[in-house]
Amino acid sequence: MEQKLQRERQDHRDIYWDLSRQYKTMQTELTNKVKKLEQEVSQLKEDLALSQEELSIEKSERKQVEQEKDAIIADLRQKLDNMESDYEKILHETLDSLSSQLSATRQGWEDESATLHQKYKELLSEFGLNALDL
Questions:
Q1: For residue 99, what are the CA distances in angstroms to 89, 111, 130?
Q2: pLDDT tens for residues 4-36?
Q3: Dihedral (CA of 109, 110, 114, 120) sign
Q4: Helix, coil or strand: residue 80
Q5: In terms of DSSP H, where are the helices of the chain?
Q6: Which residues contact 125 (CB under 8 A, 6 or more apart)?
Q7: Where in this chain does the entry annotate a coiled-coil region (predicted)?
Q8: Residue 35's closest CA among 47, 46, 43?
Q9: Fewest CB atoms within 10 Å of the CB: 2, 5, 52, 108?
Q10: Across all residues in the chain, what is the average pLDDT?
Q11: Is 120 within 8 Å of 131 (Cβ atoms)?
């Protein structure tokens, strides 16, 4: 019995030591895993900070580019409006000039026509014909 009890105690001690060894091994592994995960978290936080900084820079650059583009577009629209006004002014001046030239030419033709009519009336009258009868 005593030998059996001794064996039982020895078995308990062996089990205790084996469980203790397994516990320490697991604890060491978990500690190493926690450290590794903490390092990974730290690295990811650094990466996140860098990414956020880059994003902020990109946003400010994009905003600046948009502002520059908007300024260029506004400038081009202003130039286009000015060109439109200038061309409209030139067109009106040209049309007014053409209208004046047409009026002057028309007046010249009317004067010449009246002179010719008078001349032919006189010629008809010299031949004894009345222009209204014809």
A1: 15, 18, 38
A2: 989 999 999 999 999 999 999 999 999 999 999
A3: positive
A4: helix
A5: 2-126
A6: 131
A7: 20-93
A8: 43
A9: 2
A10: 94
A11: yes
With H, G, I as helix, E, B as strand and everything else as coil, classify residue 128. coil
Show me where the domains of the chain are located.
1-104
Single-letter residue type at 123: L
pTM: 0.52
Q: What percent of the chain has pLDDT over 70?
A: 99
Residue 56 phi/psi, 5-degree rounding, is: -60, -45
Interval 51-79: pLDDT, tens:
999 999 999 999 999 999 999 999 999 99
Q: What contacts 120, CB < 8 A, 6 or more positions away?
A: 131
User: Which DSSP helix (H) or strand (E) runs through 129?
Assistant: none
Residue 82 in tokens = 């000015």
pLDDT of 132 over the 80 cut: no
The amino acid occupying position 27 is Q
If phi > 0 it is left, if psi is from -120 to 50 it is alpha, else beta; for residue 9 that is alpha
Question: CA–CA separation, 79 vs 91, rounded Å?
Answer: 18
